[in-house]
UniProtKB/TrEMBL annotation:
One of its GO terms (cellular component) is ATP-binding cassette (ABC) transporter complex. Belongs to the ABC transporter superfamily. This is ATPase component BioM of energizing module of biotin ECF transporter. It comes from Brevibacterium yomogidense. GO terms for molecular function: ATP binding; ATP hydrolysis activity; ATPase-coupled transmembrane transporter activity. InterPro entries: AAA+_ATPase (IPR003593), ABC_transporter-like_ATP-bd (IPR003439), ABC_transporter-like_CS (IPR017871), ABC_transpr_CbiO/EcfA_su (IPR015856), ECF_ABC_transporter_ATP-bd (IPR050095), P-loop_NTPase (IPR027417). Residues 18-253 form the ABC transporter domain. The keyword Nucleotide-binding applies. Keywords: ATP-binding, Nucleotide-binding, Transport. The keyword Phosphoprotein does not apply.
Length: 264
């Protein structure tokens, strides 16, 4: 499915913020305060590959889920290729594919083939054509031989590739991956890195992914560091990774000295 061309393809965050209700310990249950998860995030992402790093709970996953409206913004706005996610979420979701950390969150059918066919159900009405296209996507990712295996028999790496196939089947313009290498061993991590690089170069899919793997983080043209819910650093991967190491070292020294940590 070809997407309409965009004059300025970009993911734009304009003072984006997200907060949740946070019941206060010293208040009645019906009284609540608001806790910000993300605050004042502003940036325009045009690069083919962008990585997002930061500690657990920093807001990385929340940032990614703003891109296709899985989580709505409470402040500011998010735009994808000129489309406001809040107002035109359905169109945005046609352009943006999302791959979760745990592929089990996406694989709902008994076999990989059936899962990919399910993704294509509303796009391809003819069953035979749907099966042909599903097999083609699995073959593209090197897992066609697993098409009719039980998903419960697959390794973590195989499941991640199948989950990726279910998203690629609908030909997204943007691919968002939330910590895709977390559950993978070294061999499967390297395979996934190769697959993603190939998708960028051959299909022209723009990718944005979060990761704790600082080597994977540098497989990009640009890296964002989310720290305590804010965009702390933004730039060349090596520089942002160095900034992250400096932040971690500073907080470790503060803990050792007994100084209070900054609140998120």
């Amino acid at each position: 499915m070809a997407h309409p061309p965009m004059t300025d393809p970009a993911i734009v965050f304009e003072n984006a913020g997200v907060h949740v209700l946070d019941p206060a310990a010293d208040r009645r249950p019906d009284e609540a305060t608001s806790r910000k998860i993300l605050s004042d995030v502003s940036c325009t992402l045009t690069e083919p590959t962008v990585t997002v790093i930061g500690a657990n709970g920093s807001g990385k996953s929340t940032l990614l889920q703003l891109i296709n409206g899985l989580i709505p913004v409470d402040e500011g706005r998010v735009m994808v290729d000129g489309l406001d996610v809040a107002d035109r979420g359905r169109e945005v979701r046609r352009r943006v594919g999302f791959v979760f950390t745990d592929p089990a969150a996406q694989l709902v059918m008994p076999t990989p083939l059936e899962d990919v066919e399910l993704s294509l159900k509303h796009l391809v009405r003819d069953k035979r054509e749907r099966r042909t296209r599903a097999l083609a996507v699995l073959d593209e990712l090197g897992v066609a031989d697993l098409a009719e295996r039980s998903v419960y028999e697959l390794s973590g790496g195989q499941r991640q590739l199948v989950a990726l196939a279910t998203v690629l089947a609908v030909d997204p313009a943007v691919l968002v991956l939330d910590e895709p290498t977390t559950l993978l061993d070294l061999a499967n991590r390297e395979k996934l890195r190769g697959v993603l690089a190939d998708l960028v170069s051959r299909r022209g899919v723009r990718t944005i992914l979060s990761t704790h793997d600082l080597e994977v983080a540098q497989d990009a043209e640009r890296t964002l560091l989310i720290h305590h819910g804010r965009l702390h650093a933004d730039g060349a991967p090596a520089e942002v990774v160095a900034a992250y190491r400096a932040v971690v070292a500073e907080e470790s020294r503060a803990v050792e000295s007994g100084a209070p940590r900054a609140r998120e």
